[in-house]
């Protein structure tokens, strides 16, 4: 490419946001001129308060530190995240920076999010989820057993539930609730935490019920390697974002809290 900065900071003939990331004024102009080049984040968990009665379940699941981060959201520098994404190379899973290559490691995930590294792998099937429900029961029957209620059809898209319904239904655990009710609310909180903060997708406003097998056994959730699953999901999202960035598509992906650091 030579030494011409104009070539260094262009991507398929479009100005590269990394070229103006250090210039506050230029960055603001860049975002106004080409807003589709900047990743926009979605934060849906804020509608559900972290109740003290959930803490023991979150600690068992190894997700308490993540939940505490969620309660005190730090400012997301969307332009900076976008610039890093543009530097991401899917062939090597590293950021190509002027000073060399820089990856996101499993240690980063464990240190920043406090997630367990050792344990069983987290897996799931999206396309044929109903075939893997425990005991062969219909998915929504199991959903009602675990959460005590079924969302109306207008709040469901295949096997995903709108975040707004979760927030309205489980936003605040009632005072004096019995243990079983608290467990149901804790399950809903954990599903929202996983679906929006750790494994967010492009929809930005839906929670897939593939987390039912995990919240069904809250005491066993801490035996899974959530850190490695989060890192794998982040790498997957980085690849998808870069693909859409190259195609000029509008971006609305949440890259998990790691992208906010």
Could you give the topology of this structure?
Blueprint: H1 5-8, E1 10-11, E2 14-15, H2 24-33, H3 55-61, H4 64-71, H5 78-86, E3 88-89, E4 94-97, E5 100-102, H6 106-113, H7 139-147, E6 156-157, E7 160-162, H8 163-170, H9 179-198, E8 206-208, H10 212-215, H11 226-247
Antiparallel strand pairs: 1-2, 3-4, 4-5, 6-7, 7-8
How would you characterize the overall build of this protein?
By secondary structure, the chain is mainly alpha-helical. It is 42% helix and 8% strand. The protein has eleven helices and eight strands. Strands 3-4-5 form a three-stranded antiparallel β-sheet. Strand 1 and strand 2 (14-15) form a beta hairpin. Helix 6 (106-113) crosses helix 11 (226-247). The two termini are 31 Å apart. Mean pLDDT is 75; it is low at 1-14, 24-36 and 249-261.
How many helices? The count is 11
The tally of strands reads 8
**Helix content range of the residues, please?**
40-55%
Specify the overall morphology.
globular
Mean pLDDT rating = 75
Q: What amount of the residues lies in strands?
A: 5-15%
Distance between the termini: 31 Å
- In the sheet with the most strands, the strands line up as 3-4-5
Order of helices and strands: HEEHHHHEEEHHEEHHEHH
The largest sheet is: 3 strands, antiparallel
Q: Over the alpha carbons, how many angstroms does the gyration radius reach?
A: 20 Å
Question: Spans of 5+ residues with little confidence (pLDDT < 50)?
Answer: 1-14, 24-36, 249-261
Structural class: mainly alpha
């Amino acid at each position: 490419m030579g030494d011409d900065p104009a070539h260094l900071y262009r991507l398929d003939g479009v100005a590269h946001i990394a070229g103006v990331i250090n210039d506050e004024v230029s960055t603001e102009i860049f975002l106004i001129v080409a807003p589709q080049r900047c990743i926009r984040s979605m934060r849906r968990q804020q509608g559900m308060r972290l109740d003290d009665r959930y803490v023991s379940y979150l600690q068992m699941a190894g997700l308490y530190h993540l939940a505490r981060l969620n309660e005190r959201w730090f400012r997301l520098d969307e332009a900076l995240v976008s610039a890093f994404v543009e530097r991401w190379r899917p062939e090597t899973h590293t950021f190509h920076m002027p000073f060399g290559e820089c990856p996101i490691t499993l240690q980063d995930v464990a240190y920043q999010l406090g997630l367990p590294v050792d344990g069983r792998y987290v897996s799931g099937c999206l396309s044929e989820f109903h075939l893997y429900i425990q005991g062969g029961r219909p998915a929504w029957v199991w959903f009602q057993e675990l959460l005590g209620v079924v969302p109306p059809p207008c709040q469901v898209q295949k096997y995903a539930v709108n975040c707004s319904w979760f927030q309205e239904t489980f936003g605040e655990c009632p005072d004096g609730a019995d243990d079983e009710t608290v467990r149901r609310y804790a399950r809903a909180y954990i599903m929202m935490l996983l679906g929006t903060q750790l494994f967010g997708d492009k929809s930005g406003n839906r929670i897939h019920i593939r987390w039912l097998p995990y919240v069904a056994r809250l005491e066993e959730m801490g035996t899974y390697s959530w850190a490695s699953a989060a890192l794998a999901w982040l790498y997957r999202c980085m690849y998808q974002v870069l693909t859409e960035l190259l195609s000029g598509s509008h971006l609305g992906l949440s890259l998990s809290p790691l992208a906010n650091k």
